[in-house]
Each structure stands twice: as structure tokens, then as C-alpha cells.
Amino acid sequence: MTEQQQISRTQAWLESLRPKTLPLAFAAIIVGTALAWWQGYFDPLVALLALITAGLLQILSNLANDYGDAVKGSDKPDRIGPLRGMQKGIITRQEMKRALIITVVLICISGLALVAVACHTLTDFVGFLILGGLSIIAAITYTVGNRPYGYIGLGDISVLVFFGWLSVMGSWYLQAHTLIPALILPATACGLLATAVLNINNLRDINSDRENGKNTLVVRLGDVNARRYHACLLLARCSVWRCLICSRYTVRGDGCLFWLRRYSSNRRAM
């Protein structure tokens, strides 16, 4: 293999891994961890393992997305977005399968380390093992399988759940070991922003997805309504953050930030 060919293969794998998407996976973990730190329950090892696991899950999703779309013929050379390694013929199906298996193994290692360090009860340990397994399944079956949910317009709700609610509340819980109502607002805000990122990508691919039978929510809504939906996602996200911020100044003191402050005071008094 020549040096130029090696560079091409390296570039192809980087394009499939899509490292630029990692901040999206990290953002919700950072929010949950920041809230835990604010309340005095920051655990650097738990936070690090959560970030590693989230990053690996994002990489798994990226690789599985390339594999599933390539196998189903959804990603063709005439698509608007960048061509991936499998589209170019540089990465074979067998190589991508091997990469998927390796990534799943790494996720299992980091995930087991995370729950072993963070979970103090058997219930928590088993619960987070189940959530981890569901996360792996969700990352793969978005485009892979006989009936991938990304092809029937369910990708948006999955992103809201896994990139919002589960990531923020999960990273908080693993450090504070309780759940409180206040967390729903920052978790929803993160999920809505991640959903908006998915929506803008699907808007870019609307024509090719429609031609190849990939019925994303954008395809189902149509171009005009999908753009309106995108505006609604962004407005909803801003509204949620505003509710969270304004709750700090409520006269009655029953806002979400009050819940956090009260929880912190109660814990320290114990």
C-alpha cells in the first residue's frame, strides 16, 4: 500500500468516525456533570467515564449509520453531504462490521467501569446496565436491521431521549444518586438542540432520502413543514432555558433552581 493510499484510508475512517459530532454527545453529559458540581457532588472519575462512554456511543452510531445506509443503498455518490468511506469503496462491509464490533466491546468496557465505580446499589447497577444495552441497540438500529427506526421517522424522539433526558439525568444521577424535578428542563433543552441538529442533516438529505425510501420525519413532513418544525425546535429550546433561568427569580421560590438549591441544602444537613 502506497503512502497516498494509506492517507486515503485514514481519511476515509475519520470521515466515518465523524469526530466533529462528538461535542454533541459530550454536551448533555457536561450539563449533568456541571449541575452535580454546582451542588457539590462532582466525581471526576465518573464524569470522565461517562464522557468516554457517550463518545463511544456516538462513534458507534456514526459507523452504524454509514453501514446501514450503504447496505440499503441510501447513500449514493450524488448525495449532497460528504461521501463516506463505504460510499467511496475504500472501506469494505467486513471492515465496517469489524469496526462496529470493536466499538461495542469498548463501550461495554467503559460502561461496565462506569457503573462499577458510580453505582452503589444492585438496583442502580442493573438499571444502568439495561440503559446501556438499550443505548447500544438504539445506536445500531437507527439504520441497521430489517426495520430501522430511522427509516420510519422515529429518529427525532430517540435523539430527544438519549441525547437529552438520559444523558443529562443519567450523568447527574451517577454522581448525586437521586433524581429531582428540576432536571427535566436542562435535559429537555439539550435534547431539543440535538434533535435540531438531526433535523438540519435530514433537511439536507431530504431528496435522496425520499428517493431511497428513507422516511425520516423531514420526508414525512415535507420541506416547508420540516423548516417550520426546525424553527419550533429552536424556539422550544430557548423557551425551556428561559423557564430554567427565570425560575431562579420566582417570588414564591418554587422554580427549578430552587429545587436544586433546596436539595443541596437538605443533603448537606443530613
Automatic annotation (TrEMBL):
Please cite one Gene Ontology biological process associated with this protein.
menaquinone biosynthetic process
Q: Where primarily located? A: membrane
One protein family per Pfam: UbiA
Q: How does it sit in the membrane?
A: Multi-pass membrane protein
Task: Quote the EC number.
Answer: 2.5.1.74
Q: Which UniProt keywords apply?
A: Cell membrane, Membrane, Menaquinone biosynthesis, Transferase, Transmembrane, Transmembrane helix
Q: Where in the cell is it found?
A: Cell membrane; Membrane
Q: Which residue ranges does UniProt annotate as crossing the membrane?
A: 21-39, 45-64, 99-119, 125-144, 151-173, 179-200
Its top-level enzyme class, in one word, is transferase
Pathway(s) where this gene product acts: Quinol/quinone metabolism; menaquinone biosynthesis; menaquinol from 1,4-dihydroxy-2-naphthoate: step 1/2
Catalytic activity reads:
an all-trans-polyprenyl diphosphate + 1,4-dihydroxy-2-naphthoate + H(+) = a 2-demethylmenaquinol + CO2 + diphosphate
Q: Which GO terms describe its cellular component?
A: plasma membrane
Q: Which Gene Ontology molecular-function terms are recorded? A: 1,4-dihydroxy-2-naphthoate polyprenyltransferase activity
State the family named in the UniProt similarity comment for this chain: Belongs to the MenA family. Type 1 subfamily.
PANTHER family, from UniProt?
Answer: 1,4-DIHYDROXY-2-NAPHTHOATE OCTAPRENYLTRANSFERASE, UBIA PRENYLTRANSFERASE DOMAIN-CONTAINING PROTEIN 1
Q: What does this protein do?
A: Conversion of 1,4-dihydroxy-2-naphthoate (DHNA) to demethylmenaquinone (DMK).
Among HAMAP family, the record links this protein to: MenA_1
Its name, as the record gives it, is: 1,4-dihydroxy-2-naphthoate octaprenyltransferase
Q: Which organism is it from?
A: Salmonella enterica subsp. arizonae
